[in-house]
What we know:
- With 178 residues, the protein is an alpha+beta fold.
- It has one domain: Aminopeptidase (3-Layer(aba) Sandwich).
- It is built from 5 helices and 7 strands.
- A 7-stranded mixed sheet has the order 1-2-3-4-5-7-6.
- α2 packs across α3 (54-64).
- The protein is globular and about 35 Å long.
Amino acid sequence: MVNVPSRDCVSRLYVHTPTIRNAEVGDAQVVAAIYVESWSRGFWGLLPSQSLTDELASRWKRDLAAPYPRLWWVAEIDGNVVGFASIGPSRDPIDAELGELDTIAVRPSHWLTGVGRALMSAAVAQLTADGYHAAVAWTLRDYERGQAFYESTGWRLDGGVRDGGRQIRYRRPLQQPG
């Protein structure tokens, strides 16, 4: 008898290069759905699950409409949005030379396919182009999947904590052109 991998496993073997584009306000509903799905699956056991509500979709619509320097991207495969990311100036700590990876999320069915790395690459390239010397990202202290992803893409813990130690901060130096 031949052991055939499940369809889910096979789909992960064939990495599709996603198209990364600027997010639009019209992406709010799908971004909210990806947020809920990735939050509920990724933070399972760490935080309560989220639910997709009209209020949450409206919040994402406001966030996606935020002006520069806040920037948003979505990742598409075969015309379907499967992930998103956002950057801007650091909010904690406030520092003019420090950017922030505000959020990055990928639909769980597309975890480990290169979508997160493509979004991270776009975010880091833009943070660098915007002239930041380094960037920070916050995540849950016990979120091993997220921590492994940040570390595999060049981010390192810098000792920063907030929310009573529940959140930890990663930092990444950015190469300046020239």
